[in-house]
Design a protein that fits this description.
Largest sheet: 7 strands, mixed
CATH architecture of the largest domain: 3-Layer(aba) Sandwich
CATH class of the largest domain: Alpha Beta
Number of strands: 12
Radius of gyration: 22 Å
Shape: globular
Number of domains: 2
CATH superfamily of the largest domain: Type I PLP-dependent aspartate aminotransferase-like (Major domain)
Strand order of the largest sheet: 2-8-7-6-5-3-4
């Protein structure tokens, strides 16, 4: 076994804030600390920095600056999109369509609305985690007011056919929302090409700071105010702006989109080698998610007869940071709702491992993981009660 290293492979959970981003943010903590809502020079500097970041976010996704609204992150953006559209269209209808593999920011928001009397259809997915646009159309009623399907899944990396789904939505005059948190900086994202009326993103997934994100709202989309109390964000999201965070978001998305043509193929090549070697060297293993329509940095595999938490602990002892599913639910004893929706039995879903790559990962990192992972699985299977049950 090789000497222990330090390898971070959980970029779907969060990414390190890039040095260029941190440098761009620093002046707005101290020298340029003004409140953007005030009128003097210091405040105008802060206001201009916010608007410059808004222009950068808009340019990255093919939107207009006035369609970008800053939030505290992707979770808030998803909440606002779904609850805001639901509230603004209550007289029109009470039915929402989403999928069974959405991030909990969407699923729990929909469940909250169900308690208020809304009806929600949670569409099934195929074995690869893909939503069939035909099932979306079949689920539409004259009371449907929103369709929400993520761009790419945070656990298994599957990329959804959002453009086709958006077309179905628009054919029935229904707004379409997509959680694009995992997609920004990984695959091309254009709100017009995708047909998105609402799109959520989060800075810390692509080299920006935690605690800041944005919601794209297409012009003329009916949506309610999310936070009352002030005129910020054109009166729709009150509260003094997080100027350093917003500046960081703008710089991060600018860099991520510019570097994507070089970065994504490099990560995809490492991803493919990692998947191929794991499946070749470790028996009773399966790939989760679509084999080709997947994010360039995502590897998710299920090992029979072992528990994912045990894999993580042993990998951590070897210096490898990974995940056994969504970081937001890593403390849960329930199996991944994404994997069970794809048809995995509970015991196999519990044995999943997610490795998500980033800019700092190298071929040497891949070699190291491949050198230690087979031994980890072999040792865990040797003591596993699950193996004796089959």
């Amino acid at each position: 076994m090789e000497e222990k290293r330090s390898v971070y492979m959980d970029h779907a959970a969060t990414t390190p804030t890039r040095p260029e981003v941190a440098r761009a943010m620093l002046p707005y903590f101290s020298e340029r600390f003004g409140n953007p809502s005030s009128l003097y020079t210091l405040a105008r500097e802060a206001k201009e920095a916010v608007e410059e970041a808004r222009r950068k976010v808009a340019a990255a996704i093919g939107a207009s600056p006035e369609e970008i609204f800053f939030t505290s992150g992707g979770t808030e953006a998803d909440n606002w999109a779904i609850k805001g559209v639901a509230a603004a269209n209550r007289k029109k209808g009470d039915h929402i369509i989403t999928s069974s593999i959405e991030h909990h920011a969407v699923i729990h928001t929909c469940e909250s609305l169900e308690k208020q009397g809304y009806r929600v259809t949670y569409l099934p997915v195929d074995e690869f985690g893909r939503v069939d646009p035909a099932t979306v159309e079949e689920a539409i009623t004259d009371q449907t007011i929103l369709i929400s399907i993520m761009t790419a899944n945070n656990e298994i990396g599957t990329i959804e056919p959002v453009a086709e789904i958006a077309k179905v939505a628009h054919d029935h005059d229904i707004p379409f929302h997509t959680d694009a948190v995992q997609a920004i900086g990984a695959i091309p994202v254009s709100v017009d090409d995708m047909g998105a009326d609402l799109l959520a993103l989060s800075a810390h997934k692509f080299g920006g700071p935690k605690g800041v994100g944005a919601l794209y709202i297409r012009k003329r989309t009916r949506i309610g105010t999310f936070i009352d109390g002030g005129a910020q964000e054109r009166g729709k999201r009150a509260g003094t702006e997080n100027v350093p965070g917003i500046v960081g978001l703008g710089r991060a998305i600018e860099l991520a989109v510019a570097e994507m043509p070089e970065k994504s193929p490099r990560l995809a090549a490492m991803r493919d080698r990692l998947i191929r070697k794991i499946l070749e060297t470790i028996p009773d293993t399966r790939l989760n998610g679509h084999p080709t329509e997947r994010l360039p940095n995502n590897v998710n595999v299920a090992f029979r007869y072992v528990e994912g938490e045990s894999i993580l602990l042993m990998l951590d002892a070897l210096g490898i940071a990974a995940s056994t599913g969504s970081a937001c639910t890593s403390a849960s004893l329930e199996p991944s709702h994404v994997l069970t929706a794809c048809g995995l039995p509970h015991e196999e879903a519990h044995g999943s491992l997610r490795l998500t790559l980033g800019s700092r990962n190298t071929d040497d990192d891949i070699d190291y993981v491949l050198s230690v992972l087979p031994g980890v699985i072999e040792r865990l299977r040797a003591i596993s009660p699950l193996r004796g049950e089959t």
